[in-house]
Amino acid sequence: MAEPRIRVEVEDAVATITVARPEKLNAFDIAMLQELSAACDAVEANAAVRVAILTGEGKAFSAGGDIRAWAGMEPNEFGHAWVRFGHRVFERLATLRMPLIAAVNGHALGGGLELAAAADIRIAETQVKIGLPEAGLGMVPGWSGTQRLVKRFGAQAVRRMLIGGEVLTAAEAQTLGIVDQVVETGMGVPAAKAYAARVAARGPAATEVSKLMVTIANGEDNGAAVEALGSMLVAKTGDLKEGVAAFTEKRPAAFKGEW
């Protein structure tokens, strides 16, 4: 059986998701997108996990999409099986219930930057290069490079990378707010673990709700975030318990409006 190319390791309250295809600079194919989606489900289902770390194995964070995985696709297949599916998986990653910290241990270009952008916090090693080279290949970003990145980092930073073809150093990316912290080579994961420990020590319910509230304020995933907040609030009321009991017992509900 082939080794998983998306690994999940849990230590105390911290889950580490590692993209593990170093021989291809952690470039994604369809199977890896499927693995990443399953990893998100596994991490979110673990009630003990309060914060997650995302990183890459070897010298790269991620080179994005493996060109050989999609180059032979017909336009419809490319649009649906590759772009839309990848977009959904990255959205799943971005909307994990717990904070996500990207330990950007190597170059994050194209889809690799879109992957890092799904995190709430990005810690990059000093040697890292960051950019959106898609237009140079005659294509456009497909995994929220023109959407999430603009909302989180601002339109001008994205214009410089996508239209101007600028490749940024970690330090330059930090000045633009794309990277939150820059550390020495080899220190990305240790720094992310230290940050994760600080996050895990905070109130888990307050942290989760705060993440949703910031998501709403930033214009991301508004509908789902609002309904998640409302559902969590209502689920803690006596009315919900009474309504379920009444349905099960086939009797009229006696709601009291208790919070």
From TrEMBL:
Protein name per Swiss-Prot or TrEMBL: Enoyl-CoA hydratase/isomerase family protein
* InterPro entries, alphabetized: ClpP/crotonase-like_dom_sf, Enoyl-CoA_hydra/iso, Enoyl-CoA_hydra_C
Name the Gene3D superfamilies for this protein: 2-enoyl-CoA Hydratase, Chain A, domain 1, Lyase 2-enoyl-coa Hydratase, Chain A, domain 2
* Alphabetic keyword roster: Lyase
One Pfam entry name:
ECH_1
Please state which protein family the record places this protein in.
Belongs to the enoyl-CoA hydratase/isomerase family.
Keyword Lyase annotated: yes
